[in-house]
Amino acid sequence: MPHLYFAIDGGSGGHLLTALAGSDPYVRQVASPRHANLLIIVEPINQKLLPAVIEVAKALPRPAHALLVRTDENELDQFPGIDSTSLEENLPGSRQITANSLGTVLAAVLHAGQGAELNLLDTSESQEETIQLPPKEEQEMATELAVLSLGPIQPFTAGSLRLFLICDGEQVVSARVESGYAYRGIAQAIMQAEWQRGLVLARALDPLAPLACQLAFVRALEQLQGWLPPVGVTMLREAAVALERVQNVLWWGVRFMRLLDDAFLTERFYGLATALDGCRSLLWQEPPKIWIAPQQNLTSHSVGRSEAINHLGQVLRGVEALRKNVEQNRWLTLRTRDIGVLSAQSLRIAGVSGPVLRASERGNGDVQSRLVARLDVTVDDLERAIEVLAASEVSSAHGAEWQVPAGETRMIVQGPRGDIGLHVVSNGGERPAHIEWQRPSAVLLPLLPEILAGQKLTDAETIVASLDLAMAEADG
Amino acid sequence: MNTIVLALLVLVCLLVGTYGIAVLQQLILLGPRRAGAALQWPIANALLLLRQEDLMPRGADGFLFRSAPFIALAVVSLTALVIPLGPHLIGFDPSIGLFYFVVLLSPFVVSLMNAGWSQNSKEGLFSTFRAAAYLVSYEVPLGFAAIGPVMAAQSLSTQRIVETQAGLWYVVWQPLGLVIYLLAALFVTFRHPFDSALAGDELEGGVFAEYSGPRLLLFKIALDAIFLILMAMGVVLFFGGWQGPWLPGPVWFVLKTFLLAGIVLWAARFLPRLRHDQILSLSWKILLPASLLNITLVGILTLFIPGGGR
After folding, report:
1. Cα(A445)–Cα(A441) distance, rounded to whole angstroms?
2. Among candidate residues A161, A121, A126, the one with its CA nearest the CA of residue A55
3. Parallel, antiparallel or unpaired: strands A65-71 and A95-99
């Protein structure tokens, strides 16, 4: 029995859904809910996104099934922006699973037909949200403008975002961005939790890059505690975060190439991404999220495992070959060059960092240069990680320390989409007095209307995809 | 009675051939190691769609929405009639067979436009405009590419065009015509990389965004079938049709058709989906001048190649 599924990503399912789409020949993702017999929803779904989810569920032809996927990281009760019960109530007949791995989700998808059918009784249709067009100019020859509402469930960001594009034919005249569909209230949740619990919640800021967020929190704590980690510990932490950045770039590459419908490059990215995930699982006895803890002098680990490092070397060579291919691929260039150009100066003013800024500083800031810049960063990260992992020695470990004296600190960690910053204020109590995150995707959102105006409709989606927006992180 | 039997035979051949194309696509997508899945997927998918609800969106134009997939399939079936599978194996062989074939391709695109227009959604409307733009731009190069073999055979009969290639296939001295024909064939069949009217994720499935169940299945069959027909006509025009040594004519024809289809589908994997304006530029700025050049070259070559201008 084949499964044609339509996927809704609440913000934390980017990698999982991307991996799922190529994992089994009998499980295929479709572009329209009308073509699907299965709805996969990766939680959390907040109150703003819920109506759109229900509309999508109604659009599925019957018989249909729904699978609610809750990842390990999503302990939904902790987030003030999420009402975890309303989704199940609104989608009677849906089945909920907790995803520990891609295999768990795939098994659930393959057996989805054996469960209860989706049973939505309300058949009323809500009005599609739109925006008012600008007043029509009295010209003898003028085309009529149209508002095209893309999203909030769309394939070009990881998580939900709505774009209102005012189009003159295929030309985007202006754009409006509506975010907040992946908002969970991370900062408030951390401030209401104890320090140790805050470490777990910090991972959820960007569910696609939990280690980088966690490391920012850990370093802030250590700085407040006045503890400086040994060089070896710092390097191993950096290596773990670097491999996370690589993982993000490779899965983003799969999503981006799928959007362009380039089967060959999609396969190449997919192969490298799965190979890297294999290496990461071999590399550590305990996952880094366990051993990156404040004042932990490291680790229960198996660094230096030659097999994993050899595999990482193969991934590195694969990425280098891919980079060469991407640069020399004339057809890809045709679709990606000279569109969505962002100047380095405007990016610096907006506070943008990471591969997007690098693409504008070292290239001409278009979609192609962002693609190349991400692969460049990946090559650098892999080289550094291999070097560190091959050289590091085993140290003894001791327990993490959770007493945080009064003080204030700012910390920045390089995440896959740019610098993840954290401002922490402690009054010496059990909980943080103030938490504020600097979110790299969030600073890109205000730039979208400017960058999309004047572009072709098709390019608009490619441009947004090239920015690799993680909406959970952008909405906070 | 003979006509009914013949029509049924053509339909059966078309459905079997379409299944073959669907399997070929899956083989290229999944790789030969998953041949079992490639063989099963088209049937499993068809059964799944047959079980599904046949939905129609609110505010849709009921007649156009419901009729569009039937028109598409009917048009494909009619074009299949003039494809010669063997020396005496052809639905019907009018003296203007190739002209009939090219003319009938337009209603196929019109059926897709009906599908997009009727569904009362902006995604469908944008896709319809794209399909309409392609309708004009593919026909000219496709027709001009087909003129080369017509000039050489001095006939519009498809069977006659095959017979005149007994000594030398036209691809040998009309390779440019073949390239233009194949690119234009990808246009008309909305195949990757020229599939922006169907649009995949870009516009939620484009003209098919609101179709579900059996009608979606009909469209999928029609799309695969029209691709099969265009590849078959490519074999007729450039690869000597059913002609070949040792094996019976129909076997040669099927082998050549699927080989050509496989090569085209495989090569398309390496390309990203082109933007609609790039597709139109390719048609008007490159394919059209190239097809005129091809006609000129063929005109000259027919004077020199033995049997070229019979």
Report:
1. 7
2. A126
3. parallel
pLDDT in tens, B170-215: 999 899 999 999 999 998 888 888 888 776 667 777 888 899 999 9
Which residues in chain B (48-87) have CB-CB distances under 8 A to chain A? 48, 51-55, 58
SS3 content of chain A, % helix, strand, coil (to 5): 45, 15, 35
Q: Is A32 in contact with B199 (Cβ distance < 8 A)?
A: no
Closest by CA to A279, choosing from A328, A238, A244, A234, is A244
ipTM of the complex: 0.87
Right CATH number for A3-114 from 3.40.50.2000, 3.30.930.10, 3.40.50.12280, 3.30.450.90?
Answer: 3.40.50.12280
What are the pLDDT digits (tens) for A9-49? 988 888 999 999 988 999 999 989 999 999 999 988 888 99
Amino acid residing at B100: Y
Identify whether the C-beta of residue A350 lies closer than 8 Å to the C-beta of residue A406.
no
- Using CB atoms, pick whichever of A63, A261, A461 lies closest to residue B272: A261
Q: What's the pTM?
A: 0.90
* Domain spanning A186-448+461-475, CATH class: mainly alpha
Nearest to A2 among B30, B41, B55 (CB): B41
Count how many pairs of residues, chain A against chain B, have C-beta atoms within 8 Å. 118
Domain ranges of chain A: 3-114, 186-448+461-475
Burial of B46: CB neighbours in 10 Å, binned 0-12, 13-18, 19+: middle
Pairwise CB contact (< 8 Å): A331 & B271:
yes
Residue A464 is encoded by which pair of tokens? 């947004």
Question: Which residues 166-195 in chain B show a CB within 8 A of chain A?
Answer: 192-193, 195
DSSP state of A470: B
